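Query form — protein DEAD/DEAH box helicase

QUESTION: What is the three-dimensional structure of this chain?
INPUT:
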Amino acid sequence: MSKQELADGADAFTHLGSRVRDALSERGFSTPTEPQRRAIPPLAAGRNALVLAPTGTGKTETAMLPVFDSIAEADPREGISALYITPLRALNRDMRERLDWWGDYLDLDVQVRHGDTTQYQRSKQADDPPDVLVTTPETLQAMLTGKKLRKALRDVHHVVVDEVHELASSKRGAQMTVGLERLQVLSGPFQRIGLSATVGSPEEVAKFLTGYQDDPRRSDHNADRDYAVVEVDAGSSVDFTVVRPEVTPEDERLAGKLATDDEVASHVRVIRDLVREHESTLIFVNTRQTAEALGSRFKTIDEPVGIHHGSLSTDARIEVEDAFKSGELDGLICTSSMELGIDVGRVDHVVQYNSPREVARLLQRVGRAGHREGAVSRGTVVTASPDDTMEALAIARRAEADEVEPANIHHGSLDVVANQIVGMVMDVGDVSAREAYELLTRAYPFRDLTEETFRDVVREVSKSRLVWLDEEADRIEKSGGTWQYFYANLSMIPDEETYEVNDMSSRRQIGTLDERFVVNFAQPGEVFIQRGEMWRINDIDEEEGRVNVAPIEDPAGEVPSWTGREIPVPMAVAGEVGEMRDVAAPQFESGGDLASVARQFLGRYPSDERTVETALEPVERQVASGHPMPTHDRVVVEGQGRSVVVDAAFGHTVNETLGRVISALLGQRTGSSVGMEVDPYRIELEVPPRTGPHDVVDVLESTDPDHVEALLELALKNSDSLKFTLAQVAAKFGALKRYQGNSRFGADRLMAALKDTPVYDEAVREVFHRDLAVEETADVLRRLHDGDLELVTARERTPIGVAGRSSGRELLVPENADASVIEAIKERIQDDRVILFCLHCQDWQRKTKVRRVPDQPECPDCGSTRIAALNPWAEEVVKAVRAPEKDEEQERMTERAYQSASLVQGHGKQAVVAMAARGVGPHNAARIISKLRENEEDFYRDILSQERQYARTQSFWD
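ANSWER: The structure tokens for DEAD/DEAH box helicase are given below.
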């Protein structure tokens, strides 16, 4: 910004007209906030702008005061003057409430329109358009095709896009940018204002918002639309502390009440204490699974803490938002949707449970606290492992230094091109192919779209009869399938069926379940957690898409899954963890102890000495063992048996990409499949016999960096990831219906049918964009080849190599499970704990490890062999069996206990082992035991198969 603009900011409100200044006085706004001081002058002058500032610093008023001023001064006013676009319906509701007062005072009509708006309200808005309409990107798509609404949209002079960073990285956002270009054809140029949390690439996000006034490839014109970027430093207004809880005697007592281990109990205690120390605390977690699991534990200890996430019903979310706002709840466990400014009243502290994985995410989340001018937002990150702690320390330091990740803008998505070609035809009936192409390329995500690719997409869409292509006249026209396709595909979010979860006792919807969870797990009688409460499935209504449930007290259930991915840790964050190891290792080598080395880190990282010590323990053990230290510039390859680990601090997507390259080339050389699992610091491989670390090193040293992309395309051909993505993309192209007809069309046949089409190209591009980092991985290989990156081997597994974070995915083992995998499963189950409970005398019970259970358990008090083997948290089952008068739920528990005892009586320890496995109850255990087998390995393979089925319901967290 210029000096003049900064000077003007001191009296920002003087740039507004008298009516708005009167409203400011009435509202009690005497002094502008920092974003208002800096942004109102250019906005009042009519410039496009991107305003970057933490949540709660008055961004909404920053954007809307100049807009309201412009509308209030206009005479006469016709149609819709301003659109306010948000990515969430919940934000629409909040924005309407926040803007209503200003509208009433200034005599401006502010309304909301989204998918749930009634037909009556829509008709009223079309006949009598409001001055300001709050809406979503998808509803904008529908509005552009309505005859009356198109007339109202001709008067749009301002478009405000809230949380624009959230849209910039998605196909929804790419679709919206073309929608804005379609709007500009209708209304003429309008002011574009973006509101965003801090991002590492503000210029990119500003271009995403504003696009181009001309074809960006024409050198004789200035293609960029003018814009200003107003950025308020978020790092200076936040304060973080990273804590790893220490187990105390209280935690040992609390663990019994929570039916968990001492360490998890310590996490619950620390979070509970933070909630008690503050008036209102948001507790952010990374997955909905964690939200439900943590919420159920707070419910067990009767703490006033609610749960909020996207799979709860709208009513359930509004209920907890209002309860938190009113003070009825002291804490609210929430996921990423709460980052986006949903109004829950004043927040004075934020807890982040586990590493937030990204700098931007931590700033956005902790920014929810302390919403007063000049106030510092305070947050505590509670960590659970050395990796988790080091990562959180790196992220907290980077956040305070404002070192934010760049926005990952979704460029060139061809299914969006297909969708918007149909949208343009819906707008006007028919359109010139040349004009359609030029409109598309004015949107920033499509600036590099070639005319040849565009025409290929048009032909593909025409084949599916979504439009009619007249090649001679070079025009695209409506066809029989245009209308139906368009309204079925207003959103670029993939269509996946969800099931309503209905509480039979209250007849209320409590949430939703993903289709894959229902198919793989949900059966009558099964138990799961939602809203922090336990539910038993009564029946599944396939026609209505409904799961009917009843509330229960039994804690021995499973947590439901939702479609989603683990938040990837960026390369820069993982690299800083590698640097921390590099700094600590020489100090340990020269005789430093944990305490003295930890103290060296406290000046740079916001934590306490003990927490840093726990993070550095694996580093100290690595040095003591004499193994090489994996760092930001050293890769260590280690192995034992058929397990090889590449210790590489490159983050999720680079490790995923590098792992796929290694797996593909090793598989090619050996003719066997290679299992793979990655985290930000390791690539774990299950390799064929007679393959080891030296083979992995050879692959890394011999792979041409320029061939990485081609190798990955070959490796992707038969992957489930590509097949799943192809089906989603084909649906958005309208092509799936073409091949599917009235029956299901197999993934392999679909892939063969769509080979060499834009649909297939887009599916590959989508997988590359979403899951892989080709350029960064090629750069890693170049550095290895040039000697800038050291590559060494360790003679055995090392402390850092075995310290991987499980991320809830430890059950997702390779399909070609070999003896070493079976041995690992066996060892894990043998170390699990069970409760042995005598159903004859009902007095004796004992908690013990599976390996200590005798071949034929019997009661030492009464000598009976009728012993139930129960999960270590199943105390409620024991209480149910002992209850003199049982309710219906206790009867079910008792029946399950007797089924367990019957299996143990008939099959001894084998039954105990089977029921100790994850996701294996008495019914499945009986089926496993009943098989005839030649050896013990086959028994464990069957257990593994059942665990895999269970793991599939655990592998798609948000």
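ADDITIONAL NOTE: Residues 162 and 955 are 32 Å apart (CA to CA).
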